[in-house]
Every structure is written in C-alpha cells, then in structure tokens.
Amino acid sequence: xxxxxxxxxxxxxxxxxxxxxxxxxxxxxxxxxxxxxxxxxxxxxxxxxxxxxxxxxxxxxxxxxxxxxxxxxxxxxxxxxxxxxxxxxxxxxxxxxxxxxxxxxxxxxxxxxxxxxxxxxxxxxxxxxxxxxxxxxxxxxxxxxxxxxxxxxxxxxxxxxxxxxxxxxxxxxxxxxxxxxxxxxxxxxxxxxxxxxxxxxxxxxxxxxxxxxxxxxxxxxxxxxxxxxxxxxxxxxxxxxxxxxxxxxxxxxxxxxxxxxxxxxxxxxxxxxxxxxxxxxxxxxxxxxxxxxxxxxxxxxxxxxxxxxxxxxxxxxxxxxxxxxxxxxxxxxxxxxxxxxxxxxxxxxxxx
Length: 352
Fold this sequence. Notes:
Number of strands: 0
Distance between the termini: 21 Å
InterPro entries: COX15/CtaA_fam (IPR003780), HemeA_Synthase_type2 (IPR023754)
Number of domains: 2
Protein name: Heme A synthase
Structural class: mainly alpha
Pfam family, one: COX15-CtaA
Transmembrane segments: 20-39, 131-149, 164-183, 195-217, 259-276, 288-309, 315-336
Largest sheet: none
Helix content: over 70%
Radius of gyration: 23 Å
Shape: flat
C-alpha cells in the first residue's frame, strides 16, 4: 500500500511541494547573500544575537554609533580595520543584517506554511516528519550561524573556517533535503524514493568538495595561488609550509586545502558523468542540466583563481555550487523514479 493510500482525503501533495520549492528558492538566495557577506568581510559587523529585536536595523545616529562601538571592541577592528569610518562600517553592517534578516524570513517561510498545512491535514502520510525536520533544521541553522560568528568575537580576527563549513554544508543539506522531498511529493502517488547506490556515492563525493570549498573560503585559501592548473610552477609547491600533526594540513593549511579543492572537483565530474550517462536513457534534460551545472562550476572555480578572487566571480561560484547540488538531487531523484518504475513493471513477470 502506498503512502498516498494512507493519506487523509485533504492531503495536497502538490501544494506542499510548491511550498518546499519556494523555500529552496529562499535558501538559494541565502547562500548567495552569505557568500557576499563572507567575501566582503562583513560577518562580524553585528556582535550581538537578537533573533527578534535585531530585525530592526539602527535608525538613529546614536544607534549607529552604539553598534560601531561594539564592533570596535572585537579583534577584527582592532587588528585589521582600525580607523574605519562610520560610513564603511554601515556598508559591512548592511550585508550581515541582510543575511540575518533573510534567515528570519526563511524561518517564517518554514514555520507558517507548515503550521497551516498541518492544521488543514494537507501533508500526505509519511511526510510529516520530513517537513517538521526541515523546519527544525532551519532553526538549528540559525544557532549554527551565531556559533560561527561567536568564534570571531574574542580572540580571532575572523570566524572559524570549520564552523563556517558546518554552516554552509547545513544550508546546502537543508536545500537538498527540501528539494528531494518536494520532488517526492510531485512523483506518482507521492511515494518517497530511495537514493540509489550510485547516488549515495555521488552525494558523498559532492559533500567532500563542498566541505573543502568552505575551507577555502574560510581560510582565504583562494588567494594562496592564482594560477591554474599549476600552483605557481608546480603541481604542489614544494616550499609550501607543512603543519604538524599531518592531518591538520587537510583542515588548516590553505595551500593543501586549495590543492584538494582544485582536484577533487574532477572526482565530482567523474560521478556527474556516470550519472549523466544513466540519465540520458530516461531524461535527457536532467543529463544536460547536470553537465551544464558542473561544467559551469569548474570554469567559475578556475576564473575565481585567475581573477584573484574577484567578488562577482567568487559569488557566482558559490551560487553555482547550490545549483550543482540541485542538479545532483534532481538527477539522482529522476534515476530513483525510473528504477522504481522499472521494478514495478518487472514484478508481474517475476511472479509469473
């Protein structure tokens, strides 16, 4: 018996799916704004976490001066931005405020429709825990965001790159989870689909690449070498500093992190090609979308290095990362649907 058969008559899978797709759109915008916030070094401009009252920005000169005084107390100002004007502070404050404000919007966009659909008993059976989990993850993501910011308020001049990675990967996980759920709700009888084995491996490879991309951003490792395919005159610079113990280089060494991010990309390409070849048999448009997203991302990554981490190129690179996640999720889901359909057609023959 399918989940749809057990759903209440009032279930509205398409409406719930549309809500989740809208949420994905907001998360995509959030990833872009988060990238701008990071690249403009704006993330530490607001030194307090006020989930409710913080929605209102400073409106008077006195309020602006108070926020500026709070910023002057942290190491980033004292060691890097000392002497910054109030006008410059307002510029970086805007991006961090916009990032947090969008987080509030996403929180409401996750909660209010969920409450309405639950009240109307419009959520199909088997999807209550998923939609509820998405809302809870959005709440947790807000706490992770502050946990990340707090790491740069006392001793560091920037946020922890490890916490930044947790923050970014959680955002992209919510994005992918919401998209997969939305696609499930649009499939025949709103039946949940299992991730095929190739999809699991592809997601794992992509997650590693996104992790090192976050490390690159957090360590400013994109500035280490602006040449490609070589790093300077060699594949890996022999004179590059090496950290002890050994494993720290895979987390804290900007040169090593950039090197891994450069070349692990082609492991992701290999999985994308395997997925696209299978997709070509069932959905040519999904195959093309996967090739286009990954190919564009590779080119933007190289361009980001060559440009010396130009703001616009780097933001496009982060935005396209979310599109790559979307292409992988949509493609793997299409394979899952095709596989389930193939098995259902073969079942009578096996029984016979």
